[in-house]
Amino acid sequence: MSSQPIGVFDSGLGGLTAVKQLRSIMPHENIIYFGDTGRVPYGNRSVATISRYAKQDARFLLSHNVKMVIAACGTVSSTVLDLADVLPVPYINVISPTAYAAVQATKNGKIGVIGTRATIGSCAYKKEIEKIDPNITVIQRDCPLFVPIVEEGFISPDDEIAKLSVEHYLSDIKACGVDTIILGCTHYPLLKPVIGQYVGEDVKLIDSGKETAIYASKLLEREGLLNSSDAEGECAFFVSDRTEDFTNTASIFLHSNIGDNVERVDIWTY
Ligand code: DGL
Fold first, then answer.
1. Strand partners, 178
2. Ligand 1, pocket-test mutation among 8, 10, 143, 188, most atoms within 8 A of CB
3. Does 185 qualify as catalytic in the annotation?
4. How far apart are CA 84 and CA 103, in angstroms?
5. Tens of pLDDT along 48-82?
6. In total, how many domains does the chain have?
7. What is the CATH number of the domain that holds 51?
8. Which of 37, 124, 138, 152 fits a disulfide with 78 by CB distance 3.0 to 4.6 angstroms?
9. Does 1 reside within a domain?
10. Any residues with CB less than 8 A from the CB of 189 and at least 6 apart, and which?
């Protein structure tokens, strides 16, 4: 049993969607969150740059004595493949739990995957799904406008910009008749109402943050690392750029107010 915090990082604040799920599944766990707001977005960068950034992010979390590192970022998860080898604590990312959940969910063997350019370019989800079940057809699509759309708050099912973008990016996936879509980026769960409205309620939308949080809780239990305290866990938030607007933006992703509990970190020193 361990009261050490779980470390979660993302290229920005989108990873708070995963923190929200972790808090609801494991309310007694302490969490340290790092959002690399000074260097976001990662999704259009080279693998070498994403890898250098992700290792600094993980080293920052280790400096807080975390018992596990979670990459909530779809882009890091799909492109940085050696992070587990360089960390002294269990490391998990979003790919394998999310791919597994999608394979369990599909009935017709057709799965859509959406994510950033880097995530889709890596084919990480496609490879993982085909490893689990080679008979499944995977249709992928990068949706580069979704991240800024969410960050601008255009997430209501009536929002014309969100509706047009969803139609633009998802028309091929819809036409292929998938019955399951992986939301392979931290920001996309916020577009669930718009995406769900476009693809129809019979299509299951798999949230990578949720599946990863479920997997993290099972792994911590198996390793005997769950926190035995009955007290509500504490969360500490760190970012690499200005902290001023953090509370407002964070409340979009977390659906709760965290006050001004945030500190700035010079991530280049890690
Ligand atoms: N966090 C990233 C992801 O999940 C999206 C934002 C970015 O491009 O850095 O892929």
1. none
2. 10
3. yes
4. 24
5. 999 999 999 999 999 999 999 999 999 999 999 99
6. 2
7. 3.40.50.1860
8. 124
9. no
10. 17, 183, 207, 209, 210
